Amino acid sequence: MIRVHRLSKSYGSFRAVQDVSFEIERGEVVGFLGPNGAGKSTTMKVLCGYLVADAGEVEVAGAKLPEQGPLARARVGYLPESTPLYRAMRVDRFLDFAARAKGLGRSERRAALARAVAAADLLGYLDRRIDQLSKGYRQRVGLAQALLADPDVLVLDEPTSGLDPNEVVRIRELIRELGRTKTVLLSTHVLGEVSELCPRVLILSGGRLVADGAPHALAAARTSALFVRFTASLGSARGSFDALEGAFDVSDVPVTNGAALRLRTDDPDGLATRVLDLVRERGLELVELRHEAPTLEQVFAAHTGGRDGRFDAVEAGGPV
Description:
Elements lengths: L1 E10 L2 E11 L4 E5 L6 H8 L7 E6 L2 E3 L3 H6 L1 E4 L11 H11 L4 H14 L15 H13 L5 E5 L7 H14 L4 E5 L3 H7 L2 E6 L2 E6 L1 H6 L3 E7 L3 H7 L8 E4 L6 E7 L2 H15 L3 E7 L3 H8 L9 H4 L4
Helix pairs in contact: 3-4, 4-5
């Protein structure tokens, strides 16, 4: 559905996107991540036909950009972060206006409006002025607009930004349902949203694609940790682990009772076996042993110049 090969785009001397390549198939819901200025918005605007790339090949739903711009734009539904709505209009009249702007004929418009209104769950709100709606329902109007032409591809930029928790849940459910039949590229800074909705993520940093894969696979590629808790004192627990020094980095974890250590390692399964052998050998009383995989937040930071994903007591959420 989406094919991007060596895409580059500059604004004057500033290189916003550099040599980016990826493919997304029908039915995929893909998270599009990156810090501010990473090149996400530029890439999305190229995919939607709003900008022309300086170099590279872009294909959306079988249409090449910019050569087949009108055809590509007809197959993409775009919801920008700041939803462009005529707020003085009623919902039904705005959607009819948007359908006309998309080139839908009279017979097509009726079916398109009914389909988009049902998908965005706007029944009962059609005669309301847009400026009388909550932000969540204004987002629904924007999404209905993006769905009018029944596009194969949806590009959504921060669709839940500023919504209350109930509205966030509703929009996420709607995105999940749309992803059953359409290709969805979801840009958001809410990483929990990505973990919930997206089996795959793309991460941009400095205009380059720095990561592409399932969140759990990207996390697995980072250094993990074992959390080990004993009833013994911290001194005796640490002394018992002298035999394993060099296999991991050790940090103390404050706990109410007993002692706890966090062992940072590239081989958590192998280290867990060694820990259990040591516990039996030294006669320690083990209270807890668990693998702590890096979070998506830590993976994001590691790929975009933030913290390197190392574990500490507060960041990893260990017992206190």
